[in-house]
Amino acid sequence: MRNGVITYLFFLLVLASCQKQPGNKITSNEFPPIYPDYIDVIIPENIAPLNFLMRDSCKKVVATIKGANQTITVKGKTKIQIPIKKWKKLLSENEEQNLEVTVSALKNGTWATYRPFSWEVNKNKIDPFLSYRLIEPGYEVWNKIQVVERNIETFNERVLADNNLNEGSCMNCHIYGSQNANISMMHIRGEKGGTMLNKDGKLRKINTRNKDMIGNATYGNIHPSGRFAVFSTNVVIPEFHAYGSERLEVYDKASDLIVLDFDNNEVSTQPFLSDTTTLETFPVFSACGKYIYYCAAPYKPLPDSIRSLKYSIHRISFDPENNTPGTKADTIWDAAEHNGSVSHLKTSPDGKYLLYTVADYGTFPIWHREADLQLMNLQTGGIDKLKDVNAFCSDSYHSWSSNSNWFVFASKRDNGIYGKTYFAYIDSEGKAHKPFVLPQRDPAMYDYTLKSFNIPELSKGQTPFDAMDIEKLYSEMESENVK
Amino acid sequence: MGKSEKIWNGVIAAEIAVVSFLFFQFFYAYHLFFKEQILLFIYTPDYLLSYFSKPGWLTCLTGDFLTQFFYLRGGGPFVLAALFSIEWILSYLSIKKISKSQLAKFWAVLPVIADFVSHLSLAHTARISTGLILVLLLFLFYSGIKNKYLATVVAVIFSIAGHWFIGSAAFVFPVLVLLHKLNSKYFVPNTLLLPLVFVLPLLIRGTYLLPLNETLLFPATQIEGLLPLAVFLFVLVIEVILQKTKTRPLFVKLSIGIIGLALAIGGFKNNVNFNREKIFALDSETYFGNTKKVIELAGKSKFENRFLSYYTNMALAKTGQLPHRLLEFYQPAIHGLILPVSQQENWQTILFSNELFYLLGDMNLAQHSSMLGNTFSPYQRSSRMMKRLAEINMVNGDYPGAEKFLRILGKTLFHKKWVRKKSAENNAHCNSNWLIEKRTQIAHSDTIRNSFDYIESIEFLVQQNPHNLIALDYLLSYYLLNKDLVSFKTAYDKYVKSLKRPVPKVYGEALLVKLFQDKVTQKEVLDYRIGTEQMRGFADYTNFFKETRLDIERSQDKFGDTYWFYYHFATFKEN
Fold first, then answer.
1. Euclidean distance between CA atoms A236 and A234, whole angstroms
2. How far is residue A224 from each of residues A284, A332, B478, measured CA to CA in Å?
3. Of the residues A326, A429, A446, B245, which has the maximum number of CB atoms within 10 A of its CB?
């Protein structure tokens, strides 16, 4: 009897172990159903491991990442989480080469090996730090907001500002001057708010509105010298669409353009930049600092004429010696000619390109599904519609890496609601390649987060302040007024 | 422990469990349902790890884990009954350990009463109960260590780490240790635990990104949340003093009785809100889809409140009864029709407000309101709002958007079944009956409106689809309750006349007033096909009004549920 039981158990064990072997194998011509979509992408040498998961209900998954001299095999139940040390070594040894990734998955007792895909390791590194705002996509009001800095070479994250420490006040984008973490700024609204300026870790709080302005500074950009910032001041109106997924429409009832001298706290503008006939917004300096690009549209009665509100790209000169914007604007992208509306201008640090978002109309593309990025070559005037970069949902809020080889942008392409940050490579010919999403330690993180990644900005170093410094600045320091 | 004491203890623990279960099951069940709806406990590594980002991770984790069972009928009362019984047992053992008092079992009832009455408040959560339980467990573990040096080391470790895994309840620990060591030579060295336990959290506040006040309270959100802990400490200190002064047991028993009674009555009076329970009853039954029960509960309630009107009106509209029975129920003008999503409203109102927009078919405002409901709920994660957002996206045909929320809910313990059904529909992009029905309501063209232009939004829905009777009835009811008969008649002529719908009671009454005011011809009156009974009623009312003039009471008895009475006597006041 006892022997019989042992024999029976032995057979059971043999049977069970047989099932574990990849006995039934098939090879698929399809790419594996992985999330995020990391199929055939170009990645910088210093990026964190591209962890991913299988979307279909497999029992086990194995990924083999094959380089020139080394292969990593990673196993998981449904997720592939690559050990960071091995990953770093693999990338450094395979600079300018392709890694071949083969994924096999056990499903319904059968191992399927999918069509291999590649990760091309690019020697041009991306700036290692990325700041972004984490916010619920409530699209009109907020509750809990954090501005976070992520080291994209690892998975480490640090909170730069948390509105729970600032009486729940709204916090806008955190932007760097020339991707330099020692020069950055961020608007914090609320009673004790102001524009927080970081210069080499020394924090200042500036009330950016003088008596002649229609509002506080809104969208802005720091001059390459770090001394000036150009801002639009906007009277912002949020309204709602009635149809399907169009959701929110944000437009400006009025908007002007100013330049602020941080050394003297002085505001300068030109009459044509602050009158009521034209709406100006999203200004940026050129890489050389001698020009200002901005979006402009003739004023229209809103919201009735919202669909005909189309912004062009204008350029004026800027004299840093005298803090004086030029008196004549050139149109370098005509909304009427292109039948679109531009927003979010960003010049590349090498001065070659201007990256911007084009929507059908209006000035707030993040809920415009048709909003796509476009790249203008400032030397030739040629426009690239970035077919490989854009997706069906809003692509906007972009920022450059300091070497101009990479840019980061926010896209709602996954579900139309929650924004995530994507990186895209631009080669020496100026061609932009398929983007990939910011990797996470747990690749399922994006599925379960209720926060949108908003306004991503790259920087070369770590920002020299944290949330407690901002709390102190907010609650204890008086604002400096501008003239 | 003698046999009789064991029986006593068993009786007290059982009594606590039975009383609390019965109360929460039969008098306060909807509060507990609501507490589950404003939480979203999901089984994912990132979510579980997120508990470490704030102090008291173990307290919060166990508290939230238990709160998910509030979803089940009887689940909430059962969990609370168990928590209270455990609290009593541990309080009893701790008090006994410190004071050796024979009356410990009675003293131990007081913190339980404090926690019980605190749970009547919406802000109080199971996290507070689990915090108390955990700190008592720590103390009992510590006090059971025989080796004095080891005990000291454990006390220091618990004092340092307590805030990390228990939160504010950890502040009780060194006090318990001190009282335990009151007559020992270790008392003085142990006093050092006090500054340690209070100063350390302040020093590491930056790690948790908490403002000063929240650092000391967390996971409680307001000072009242610390009542059970405060009562427990108070009880201990009093007991030790009474022991020292050798107070007679009868006096002590009397004191316990008086304090307990005062705590129970004061706490109950302060926290219980049966009117809110009625609101939550209608709200939850709306959520559960029990429309008939909503009307039934509203009919029984004597409580007059805009939220009750809000849910009642929705139930009436859903069953096509709104234009017939609108005035059978309390109507605070238009405030019972639409709940505004504004800064002046609290988070519960914002959370409730999506129901109407969803019912009307205004998916964009429903989505806005649900997003904000979720954002402003206490933990910014509401299972109920996730469900609504999934439904809205399905109706809009935004399948990837719906999938986002379905995937999240799929990681819960109790919403999986709902998710399986909806996911099957979503993945197949199929047209279930409810989707077909909802999609007939939604707009097929666009307009831009301010989020507060509710009436403009409703009228747009009606323009898009005059057969959207729910939106139409809301539009007309809005005008009627606003006594705007001009707009009512314009909208009626524009949208209702062509529908060949029998004239509902309230509309007929309003039309008669307007037609009478306009002095129209008999032929024009007949054009509206108002029933003869209503015509007769209007004549009766006119005669009655002429006879009695402004005798509200007599008019109300006879015509209280008519629009004529509302039109003449209802007065508007600020809500």
1. 6
2. 11, 22, 58
3. A446
Top residue of A51, A141, A162, A441 to mutate, by most chain B CBs within 10 Å, is: A141
pLDDT 10s digits, B457-478: 999 999 999 999 999 999 999 9
Whether B521 shows a pLDDT value over 70: the answer reads yes
Report the distance separating Cα B492 and Cα A101, nearest Å. 66
| The pLDDT of residue A50 | 98
Nearest-angstrom CA–CA distance, A462 and A151: 8
**Residue A100 identity:** E
Structure tokens at A75: 């196993």
Residues 444-463 of A with CB under 8 A from B: 444-445, 447-450
The answer to whether B344 contacts chain A (CB < 8 Å) is no
Question: B94-98, B141-145, B255-259: which range is least confident on average?
Answer: B255-259
Half-sphere exposure in the Cβ direction for B298 (13 Å, CA):
30
- Is the ipTM value over 0.95, yes or no? no
- Chain-centroid distance of CA B226 in Å reads 20
CA distance A399 to A459: 10
Question: For residue range A214-270, what is the model confidence (pLDDT) as tens digits?
Answer: 988 999 999 999 999 999 999 999 898 988 777 889 999 999 999 999 999 999 999
Please check the confidence at residue B386 and state whether its pLDDT lies above 90: yes
Place of tokens 């509030």: B70
Contact A236/B at CB under 8 A: no
Nearest to B69 by CA among B79, B59, B84: B79
Is the pLDDT at A14 greater than 80? The verdict is: no
**Exposure letters A157-169 (e unless 16+ CB within 10 A, then b):** eebbbbbbbbeeb
Give B494's DSSP letter: I
Pairing status of strand A25-27 against strand A171-177: unpaired
Of A162, A240, A416, the CB nearest to B448: A240
Contacts of B45 in chain A (CB under 8 A): 442, 444
User: Which residues have a Cβ under 8 Å from the Cβ of B277 and sit 6 or more positions away?
Assistant: B27, B28, B30, B31
User: Hey, what are A422's tokens?
Assistant: 């994507």
* Nearest CA-CA partner of B378 in B411, B344, B346: B346
B44 at interface of A, judged by CB pairs closer than 8 A:
yes
Q: Which of B448, B454, B460 to mutate to test the interface with A (most CBs of A within 10 A)?
A: B448
Residue for token pair 């070559």: A377
Cβ contact, residue pair B400, A306, below 8 Å: no
Separation CA A100–CA A107 (nearest Å):
22
Contacts of A51 in chain B (CB under 8 A): none
Helices B416-428 and B399-409: crossing angle, nearest 10°? 160
Neighboring chain B residues of A242 at a CB cutoff of 8 Å: 362, 364, 443, 445-449, 457, 460-461
Residues 6+ apart with CB under 8 A from A30: A114, A115
Interface with A, mutate which of B383, B404, B427, B447 (most A CBs under 10 A): B404
Query: Which residue's structure tokens are 């004597």?
Result: B302
State the amino acid at position A218 in one-letter form. T
- Distance of alpha carbon A281 from alpha carbon A341, whole angstroms: 12
Average confidence score pLDDT of chain A: 91
The C-alpha atoms of residue B268 and residue B274 are separated, in whole angstroms, by 11
Chain B partners of A447 at a C-beta cutoff of 8 Å? Answer: 404, 407-408
With CA atoms as reference, report the closest residue to A103 among A68, A56, A45.
Answer: A56
Which amino acid, one-letter code, is at A168? G
**Partner residues linked to A325 by β-bridges:** A318
Could you tell me if residue A362 is left (phi over 0), alpha (psi between -120 and 50 degrees) or otherwise beta? left
